[in-house]
Amino acid sequence: xxSGTGKEKAIALFDASAGCIITLPVILSGEEWRALLxxxxxxxxxxxxxxxxxxxxCHAWKEPGIYFYASCGTDLFNSVNKFDSEMGRxxxxxxxxxxxxxxxxxxxxxxxxxxxxxxxxxxxxxxxFNDDSAPAGKRFCINSxxxxxxxxxxxx
Length: 156
Fold this sequence. Notes:
mainly beta; three-stranded antiparallel sheet; six-stranded antiparallel sheet
């Protein structure tokens, strides 16, 4: 996978099996992303779309393991922190590490929200909300279109 022009600054990420790693960001053109992603993944991850509630492949996933981003492989969420928010998308109380996500103000659709992106490739993952009913007071509402699950140990 192309990681850009070679002039990018290395970033630190957390890998559930290896700990903290140093890697380059993944920077691809729109055409390269289209070739790599399904049309639905492209619409969500690159165009900031939203999958239809209760239809995502990871919504009801209960197996222990890690959710990672489908294209760049960045570990994003641990199933230990997953909970049913009844919102129709996988919800997590926290990412595997704050290193692996970036957050950005999102004023689209007449709302003020906080967007969550993959730190390595800047793919749109979903949004994070302050939610007193959620564990730790945060609800990361993530489109499962962007996620792949790898079954295994929950231990980090």
